[in-house]
Amino acid sequence: MDLCSVAAGRAGGYFELEVSTWDYAAGLLLVREAGGRVTTVEGEELGLVAGKTSILAGGPQSAGELIQALAE
User: Fold this and answer.
1) Is 29 in a helix, a strand, or coil?
2) Burial 33-66 (b: 16+ CB within 10 A, else e)
3) Where along the chain do its domains lie?
4) Under a CB-based contact definition with an 8 Å cutoff, are residues 28 and 5 in contact?
5) Looking at residue 69, what is its pLDDT?
6) DSSP-derived secondary structure letter, 46
7) Cα separation of 49 and 6, whole Å?
8) What is the tens place of the pLDDT at every residue in 13-59?
9) Which of 30, 44, 41, 34 is nearest to 66 (CA)?
10) Number of Cβ atoms within 10 Å of the Cβ of 13
11) Cα dist. 39→14, 50, 54 in Å?
């Protein structure tokens, strides 16, 4: 639901440090189709991966700002 809020523009961004693929797969598609960006919290491209990963989603600009803020 958090990723749906990002895709709809109701939330500026979202991140989580440990998620499984089934927790974010549909939301990843929605955010990307809405023109947003989905990466790991380190800023690496995120696809469907086995095991746990981190996730960060936002608009094209806000995602970059979130990555920088988390790095600090």
Assistant:
1) helix
2) eeebbbbbbebeebeeeeeebbbbbbbeebbeeb
3) 2-71
4) no
5) 86
6) -
7) 21
8) 999 999 999 999 999 999 999 999 999 999 998 988 889 999 999 98
9) 41
10) 19
11) 11, 15, 8
Q: Backbone phi, then psi, for 58, in 5-degree steps?
A: 180, -175
pLDDT in the model for residue 68 = 85
Helices (H), the chain: 2-8, 21-33, 60-71
Q: What is the pLDDT of residue 53?
A: 94
**Total count of residues recorded for the chain:** 72
Q: Report the topology of domain 2-71.
A: D-Maltodextrin-Binding Protein; domain 2 (3.40.190)
| Token digits of residue 60 | 């094209």
